[in-house]
Design goal:
- The complex is a heterodimer of chains A (231) and B (274).
- Chain A is of the alpha+beta class and 231 residues long.
- Chain A has eight helices and seven strands; from the N terminus they run H-H-H-E-H-H-E-E-H-E-E-E-H-E-H.
- In chain A, helix 4 crosses helix 5.
- By secondary structure, chain B is α/β, with parallel strands linked by helices.
- Classes of the chains: A alpha+beta (231), B alpha/beta (274).
- At the A-B interface, helix 7 and helix 8 of A face helix 6, helix 7 and helix 8 of B.
């Protein structure tokens, strides 16, 4: 063992989570680094679904806000909640509930880009951080996610399948705006509540505050004549 | 997720307590610009002095958290600032300072840089500060930061009226237009007061206002229930006296009240009180 470090429990945790044993000669720097990397990975994932957990989600959100502020490419945050999830648990049992959570998590991963982050942020709550998502695409992406879940059968027994739906709220990190993860989440949450209140299984996105001034607007503002016949 | 949706920025322009006509509560004017360096703080400070001359109790709040210029323009080096209030080191009362020009100021202090990013805490603190000072003044002026940050939008959302400072420069007009657009879409503002600063000829303020209104009509007002109206509240001529006063860190209204720019700010104050 490396310099008397107590690593038994760490190694046991990794084995239990299905991780490969650390690579390299036991006790070497490379071996320790590999062990640490595995532990970091373990502590940033949700144990049930394998998705990013709340902790790494919040880190990603803070990173994304900084990136948006610097690069100016809008990012979209979607928050999702499985509709009437309690009913699934109550009717079919918690084991079935877990299967639903896993299936939803897998489906979400399948309908986003590799660069997007899908996280399980609470009991039946999920979130997707989508960097570089132009505001014109937001509605389409969110709607695709909602339809995908709605159409997906979840097997909860040998011959039993159920269907669930999700409500989706979303908000963009506005370009050039200094903000914080908490406010971004709150704005998306407001839209999620709206989707729930309007009857669930639907998408509500915050109307984007467009601060970009188009060429047409500039042309009219500065009276450039060649643009004035646009209409 | 847990955050309550009770008070979003979309919920309306005034999340604080409602202000009836009878309530003895300050009229809150947010001064903003989109672009920096167009004279926002100059207008805020001298407008405050002009209103004070009309017998109004005026407070200027440095809502440009962390990036403040108000202290520079007024030549103040406060021992207690909003930063001390936010961190609980001082009472709000002790941070309200008398400024030259007969009004009061609440300065942010350099430690506020960490607050230049909007968080729920900053929001609650700002709201608390404004609710505390509003009953004790006739007029509160929020000197906001440049740009269209969350802090700026939130400060403006607390105000009864918004005054956009713009110069006839294309960059300033573009940013003012973007600000007006965002305020219309996120806060439902349908009236924006315009101060055109650094005009070079008579009537240029009116022209800038009309030009902006034309674009707003075409791109913002189409399909809106309540069209956005721009009111020209004032036009301040380009005046070498302004630069001198800023360099000397004195209020123009104090040192050269008869200069063209000072007279224009006084006229602005009169118009606001009209």
């Amino acid at each position: 063992m490396a310099g008397g470090l107590r690593l038994d429990q760490a190694l046991q945790l990794l084995r239990q989570a299905g991780h490969e044993p650390p690579a390299g000669a036991e006790g070497s720097d490379a071996w320790l680094q590999s062990l640490i990397d595995s532990l970091v990975d373990l502590s940033s994932r949700d144990a049930l679904t394998g998705l990013a957990n709340r902790r790494s989600f919040e880190l990603a959100l803070a990173r994304e806000i900084d990136r948006v502020a610097r690069a100016g490419e809008p990012a979209l945050l979607l928050v999702l909640d499985i509709d009437h999830f309690k009913r699934v648990n109550d009717t079919h049992g918690h084991a079935s509930g877990d299967l639903v959570l896993k299936a939803v998590g897998k489906a979400l991963l399948e309908c986003v880009r590799p660069m997007d982050m899908v996280a399980r942020t609470g009991g039946e709550e999920f979130a997707i951080v989508m960097p570089n998502c132009p505001s014109a695409f937001g509605e389409a992406v969110a709607e695709r996610v909602r339809r995908r879940i709605e159409a997906m059968p979840v097997s909860i027994g040998l011959s039993q399948q159920i269907h669930v739906s999700v409500s989706v709220g979303g908000a963009f990190a506005p370009q050039w705006v200094r903000s914080s993860p908490a406010l971004w989440i709150e704005r998306a949450d407001v839209q999620l509540y709206r989707a729930k209140a309007q009857g669930r299984n639907q998408v509500c996105l915050e109307p984007s505050a467009v601060s970009v001034v188009s060429a047409e607007e500039k042309a009219l503002l500065f009276g450039i004549s060649q643009f004035q016949d646009i209409e | 997720m847990s955050a309550a949706p009770a008070r979003s920025r979309q919920a309306g322009p005034r999340p604080s307590a409602s202000r009836g006509a009878t309530a003895a509560r300050a009229r809150i004017t947010a001064v903003t610009s989109g672009k920096g360096g167009v004279g926002k703080t100059f207008v805020s400070a001298n407008l405050a002095a002009a209103l004070a001359r009309q017998g109004r109790r005026v407070l200027v709040l440095d809502a440009d958290l962390g990036l403040a210029n108000l202290d520079v323009i007024l030549n103040l080096a406060p021992k207690i600032t909003l930063h001390d209030v936010f961190t609980g080191r001082s009472e709000l009362e002790d941070a309200i300072l008398p400024a030259p020009g007969g009004f009061s100021v609440l300065l942010a202090g350099s430690g506020m840089v960490e607050y230049s990013r909007m968080t729920p805490e900053v929001r609650d603190q700002l709201l608390k500060v404004i609710d505390h000072v509003a009953p004790r003044f006739d007029h509160v002026i929020l000197d906001t930061g440049a740009g269209i940050s969350d802090v700026v939008l939130y400060s403006v959302s607390l105000a009864d009226e918004v005054l956009v400072v713009v110069t006839p420069e294309p960059t300033s007009m573009t940013d003012a237009y973007a600000t007006i657009k965002v305020l219309a879409s996120t806060q439902g503002r349908d009236r924006v007061l315009l101060v055109v600063n650094q005009t070079r000829r008579h009537g240029e303020g009116r022209a800038v206002c009309q030009q902006l209104q034309q674009v707003v009509d075409r791109f913002v007002n189409s399909g809106r229930a309540a069209p956005v109206r721009l009111d020209l509240a004032g036009q301040v001529p380009l005046d070498i006296a302004v630069r001198d006063s800023v360099l000397r860190r004195q209020l123009l209204l104090e040192t050269l009240p008869g200069s063209p720019a000072a007279l224009a700010v006084a006229a602005l104050a009169a118009k606001l009180l009209d």
